[in-house]
Design brief:
With 167 residues, the protein is mostly helical. It is built from 8 helices and 2 strands, in the order E-E-H-H-H-H-H-H-H-H. The protein has a two-stranded antiparallel sheet. A hairpin with a 5-residue loop joins strand 1 and strand 2 (12-15). Helix 6 crosses helix 7. It starts with a strand and ends with a helix.
């Protein structure tokens, strides 16, 4: 769609509309930069993020550089690990409601912390870097999303961890 605009000198300037941002958007981040921001917020590499989304690392790079946009199935897979899909699409963070909320009992939350403390240590028993522990915590929380409160016990979480790791 081509529009016309009259310049200050009185000349007609054609504007194809390509590369223009919506009204009111000043330097808004692109989809690709928001996708990269979410990946970095979760502490994942492009390769790890691509695996979750079911694509190749090069495809992940293409998405993050705005060469191509992903499909809905990819976004749904990312949403499962805590990516804010609304933010990716709209550029606005949404308050968690309905299915995006996780109700965890106090005991369930304690169990998650204990599992993180138990499993997120190196060979010398020292805690792994905070980013690794945060990612592990997020994965455990995401795995509990549709579980009842009795499925949040320490043993249930250990079983869930075994399921996630295949051990």
């Amino acid at each position: 769609m081509t529009g016309q605009k009259v310049s200050k000198t009185g000349n007609i300037v054609l504007n194809s509309g390509h590369h223009t941002e919506p009204p009111g958007c000043v330097n808004s981040p692109s989809f690709g930069s928001r996708l990269r921001e979410e990946r970095e917020r979760l502490g994942l590499s492009q390769t790890q993020f691509a695996e979750v989304g079911g694509v190749a690392r090069t495809t992940q790079h293409i998405y993050e550089t705005d060469i191509r946009s992903p499909d809905v199935a990819y976004l749904e897979k990312l949403r499962g690990i805590g990516v804010d899909a609304s933010y990716l699409v709209t550029g606005s963070r949404q308050v968690a409601v309905g299915n995006d909320t996780l109700t965890v009992s106090y005991q369930g939350l304690l169990s998650i912390y204990r599992i993180v403390d138990e499993f997120c240590v190196d060979e010398d028993g020292e805690p792994l870097p905070l980013e690794v522990r945060e990612r592990f915590f997020q994965l455990l929380c995401a795995s509990l999303k549709d579980k009842s409160s009795q499925d949040q016990s320490l043993d249930s979480l250990r079983n869930e961890l075994r399921r996630l790791t295949g051990t």
